[in-house]
Amino acid sequence: MFDSPLSASAYEVLGVDATATEDELRRAFRQRLRDTHPDTGGDAAAFVRVQRAWELVGTAHARAVYDRGHGFAAAGPDAGGWRPASARPDTRPRARSAGQPGGWRRERYLTLVREWAGRGVALEDPYDPALLRSAPRHLRRLLADALAEEATARIVADLGMGYTVWHDVAASRDGDPEAKLDHIVLGPSGLYGLLSEDFGGPVGFRRGEITGPQVPDAPVTRLLSGVRHVARAARVRFGGAIVVLPDDDVPQQITELGSIRGVPVAVVGRSALSTVLRRGVRGARDIGGNEVFDIRTRLDQTVRFV
After folding, report:
1. Sheet (strand 181-187) strand order
2. What DSSP state is assigned to residue 17?
3. What CATH code would you report for 10-69?
4. Taking a C-beta distance cutoff of 8 angstroms, is the pair 147, 82 a contact?
5. Is the pTM above the cut of 0.90?
6. What percent helix, strand, coil does the chain show, rounded to 5?
């Protein structure tokens, strides 16, 4: 809930400044509980966020840890924020992988945040939480989407050697990086195009598309456009398309939108992705045997990365 660069801080959820006293913080918490309580007409999701915010800053120790980790105090051993994932030894069989998940968006973020903060001057820490809090939303969203793509990549890798995944795949004739496919996943349940997003808030659905106050475009349409481009170029048939979102932002963990332009589409919470990729999207065609190797060869020969 508070792990995305787009998330409101615990103080913003409680409606106080980060310098609020303990008494001010406690009064704000009680007021926000009354305002958001479902029994008095409040929003249940907002009520949960208020409780979670209090867990993070409601005691002196918790608040000190939170402040160090989110740029409200001098950094210390508990400092967190949004950092590149550190490598960990792992001897389990992994999915076959090509391309750099989140690579284009992370590089774009680093370029633009340096221009914004220092006119090209090297920053000591471009991922500093305090810097991110003050950065324009479009910069924070670039990093949030890069992190979302990296999280999806880790999930797919854990599916094992029966799966192959291509990341940051070019999906337009003119090489427009904005038209890329975040991931292509090939496994026993089918061939899927994936879009990993973080819109920074809850979403809904209308006429086969994702809606919400922070949804800036038509993500399902964009995903299907990329799927069609790669399908034509590689002469393969996709079994489905999947949009992966943070768990807190979806009304339920798996939402089947049905067949859109001939492609079955599902929107899933991140924690449900491995389940969906193992069982398949409803209406998708299972593949196996030599067909898997044929599709993988075609994609290896055709795929280009942004």
Report:
1. 96-98, 164-169, 181-187, 190-196, 240-245, 263-269, 254-260
2. -
3. 1.10.287.110
4. yes
5. no
6. 45, 15, 40
